[in-house]
Amino acid sequence: MTNIHIAPYRPEWQPYFEKFNKAWIEKHFVLEAIDNYVLTHPEEAILKDGGEILFALHNQTVIGAVALKKIDNATMELTKMAVDEAFHGLGAGTKLCKSALEKAKELEVKKLVLYTQSALKPALSIYKKFGFQQIPIEQGIYKRADTKMELNIK
Known about the structure:
This is GNAT family N-acetyltransferase. The chain is of the alpha+beta class.
C-alpha cells in the first residue's frame, strides 16, 4: 500500500469512476439504470448533495474509487467502491474504505450504510475488517443487493 495514495474527485477522473465500476458490475451482474446514472453523472448524483468521491492512485495512475452518498445529515451510503482488476491485491480497496471512513468522520457523519452482494467475498472481508455489521435489507434499492451493512461512527 505504500505506493497508493488517495485523492478527492476531479472531473477528469469521472471516466475512471465509470470504467472501474462498470467492469465489476457487468462481470458479476447486470448494470442497472441507477448505476448508469450515478456513474455517468457523479457530480449530480453524489457530489451536489454533499457527497464525496475518492480515488486511489498508484504511482500517479488512477486505479480505484469509492463514493460517499449523503442520505441525511447523520447518514451516508458507502457506494461504488471499485479497483481496476489489474491492481487487485495491492490493498487499494482497504485504503479506499479506510479513507472513506476518515472522510465520513471529518464530515461528522454518525452512520455509514452499504449495499452489497454476498458473493463478493473480498468486498465483504474489507467491510467486516472495518467493523460493518450486517442488518436486514429493505427491498428495491439495487436488484443485485442481498446484503445491507452499517457502521456506527464514534
